[in-house]
Amino acid sequence: MERKLFTALQGEGADQLNNCLSQQGFRRSQNVLYRPSCTDCAACLSARIDVSNFRPSKSQKRAYRRNSYLTRHATSPWATDEQFDLFRRYLDARHADGGMADMDVFEFAAMIEETPIRSRVVEYADPDTDELIAVSLTDVLDDGLSMVYSFYDPLFQQHSLGTYMILDHIEIAREAGLPYTYLGYWVPGSPKMDYKAKFSGLQAYIRGEWKQIEDPEQYAQTAHHPLSSAPIAEQVANIQLPDRHPTKG
Q1: Predicted pLDDT of residue 112
Q2: Which domains does the chain possess?
Q3: What is the mean pLDDT of each run of 10 residues along the chain (249 residues)?
Q4: Could you give phi then psi for residue 137, rounded to 5 degrees?
Q5: pTM for this one?
Q6: Which helix (H) or strand (E) holds 83?
Q7: So what's the pLDDT on residue 249?
Q8: Would you state the pLDDT for residue 189?
Q9: Listed GO cellular component terms (predicted)?
């Protein structure tokens, strides 16, 4: 049975709280921060790429070249009809039985627009037709970019657009001097999550610290170990919160 730790993300300290908890494995969903906290399973690992240690593979280089003709436009988090149409086509083709399959235009707008922090919608379009091809809802953190949710035109499935968007965000982070690109949760051994393990420089938040992932299969084998999940009281006690009244120098 799934269990999560979560807290509201609101008020003047929202940015500070988001930065602090993101560095401790939490993720944002609209105005809520959450982290899996299941009793007997620790398979969901928050993942990020260490930009300085990332080296693209041959297939990733091909994916980048294949899609490099696309134009990138980063805008404020405002939902459009064109984005929603693309989102619906993506879900129907890729995740028709998923938890978001029934989202309507109002729920989509809430996902994009209900953000109390610094967020951007990064759009990728065909420069010849101006057709929207891919979109990423991205948060800007103190130490990196967090890819909250991405989707793309299913007609371009063979173009490795998901990989391309991650590669492009790594490049954006590098240009901005940000050390990390956050990818959300990675589940070792899950076929749908294997693509994240293919990026060099991958780190995962495990038992209170970020660890470099050298052998992904190692973590798939230990996720259900009796000691893999700390008691909930211990997890809560170990969460570090930002200083609400920092000392001014």
Answers
A1: 97
A2: 47-219 (3.40.630.30)
A3: 88 92 94 89 92 97 97 96 96 76 90 95 97 98 97 93 97 98 91 89 92 80 61 77 60
A4: -85, 115
A5: 0.90
A6: helix 81-94
A7: 41
A8: 82
A9: cytoplasm
Tell me the helix, strand and coil percentages in the chain, rounded to 5: 35, 25, 40
The CA–CA distances, whole Å, from 193 to 44, 72, 173 equal 10, 25, 22
Task: Give the tokens for residue 105.
Answer: 């235009």
Two tokens at 172? 């954006």
d(CA 26, CA 19): 9
The sheet carrying 132-141 orders its strands as 71-75, 119-125, 132-141, 144-152, 180-186, 45-50, 202-206, 209-212
Cβ contacts of 157 within 8 Å, gap of 6 or more: 93, 94
CA–CA dist 145, 47 (Å, integer) = 12
Cα(69)–Cα(76) distance, integer angstroms: 23
Rounded to whole angstroms, the Cα distance separating 155 from 134 reads 11
In contact, 131 and 125? CB cutoff 8 Å: yes
